[in-house]
């Protein structure tokens, strides 16, 4: 259907910061996702629906056209290997940094450094650019524990306030990338549903610009 739009939004802090943005666009959820079990939520605009999903799934849904628009962190987009997404707008929300970190009181590393991360591609590219050989170990959560329990020398993870690193005796070693949430658009929908999508993208761009100035 050419008159319907589904917006896929990453769960968690991106969702929390997206809702006020959507409200400024005049898009308001009818159900509270924290109370409802529905996976696709109606909005006050009958042709616009919102689905709140795992951050790493957002690019997949948008690339395949199951959602026309998506809101995902740059970390997820950098890690994603697909290439058929438009990324027209930096929304400037859920800002943080992708960092390399290690123990404050680390012993000298004698072998190939081991790095835990859930960002395998970002980590591989980062060390390849530096010509440094490392062993990358995939974890799905609590990266900070890796060096503390001796699983790894370093971690690559998102850092916001730095409190989690500090609480676990870790310090930042290098800044890999600035991260914030981006609007992504399905390429076919950009052509087929341009009349619907263009005003949303333009209005969002204005909102972001005004909130920065
Ligand atoms: P902080 O203690 O404020 O530096 O936050 C660090 C913890 O929050 C780490 O476990 C990160 O993986 C996670 N984190 C920080 N920023 C973000 C973000 N924008 N999106 C998702 N997770 C984040």
What can you tell me about this protein's structure?
With 213 residues, the chain is an alpha/beta fold. It folds into two domains: 5-94 and 180-212, Periplasmic binding protein-like II (D-Maltodextrin-Binding Protein, domain 2); 96-177, D-Maltodextrin-Binding Protein, domain 2 (3-Layer(aba) Sandwich), CATH 3.40.190.10. Helices cover 32% and strands 30% of the residues. The chain is built from eight helices and eleven strands. It has helices at 13-24, 58-63, 74-79, 120-130, 145-148, 163-167, 187-192, 194-212, and strands at residues 5-10, 40-42, 48-53, 69-73, 85-90, 96-103, 114-117, 135-138, 154-159, 170-179, 181-186. A six-stranded mixed β-sheet has the order 2-3-1-4-11-5. Strands 8-7-9-6-10 form a five-stranded mixed β-sheet. The protein is elongated. The chain starts with a strand and ends with a helix. The mean pLDDT is 95. Adenosine monophosphate binds at residues 13, 73, 94, 96, 157-164. Adenosine monophosphate is lined by residues 13, 73, 94, 96, 157-164.
């Amino acid at each position: 259907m050419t008159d319907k739009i589904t917006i896929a939004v990453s769960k968690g802090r991106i969702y929390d910061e997206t809702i006020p943005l959507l409200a400024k666009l005049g898009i308001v959820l009818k159900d509270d996702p924290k109370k409802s079990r529905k996976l696709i939520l109606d909005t006050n605009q009958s042709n616009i629906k919102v689905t709140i999903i795992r951050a790493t799934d957002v690019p997949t849904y948008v690339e395949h056209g199951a959602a026309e628009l998506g809101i995902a962190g740059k970390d997820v987009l950098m890690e994603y290997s697909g290439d058929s997404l438009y990324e027209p707008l930096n929304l400037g929300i859920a800002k943080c940094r992708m960092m390399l970190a290690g123990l404050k009181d680390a012993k000298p590393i004698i072998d190939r450094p081991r790095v835990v991360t859930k960002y395998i591609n970002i980590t591989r590219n980062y060390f390849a650019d530096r010509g440094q050989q490392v062993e990358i170990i995939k974890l799905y959560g609590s990266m900070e524990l890796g060096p503390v329990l001796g699983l790894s020398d370093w971690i690559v993870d998102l850092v916001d306030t730095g409190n989690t690193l500090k609480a676990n005796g870790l310090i930042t070693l290098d800044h890999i990338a600035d991260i914030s949430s981006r609007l992504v658009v399905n390429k076919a929908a950009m052509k087929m549903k341009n009349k619907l999508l263009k005003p949303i993208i333009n209005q969002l761009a204005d909102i972001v610009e005004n909130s920065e100035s």
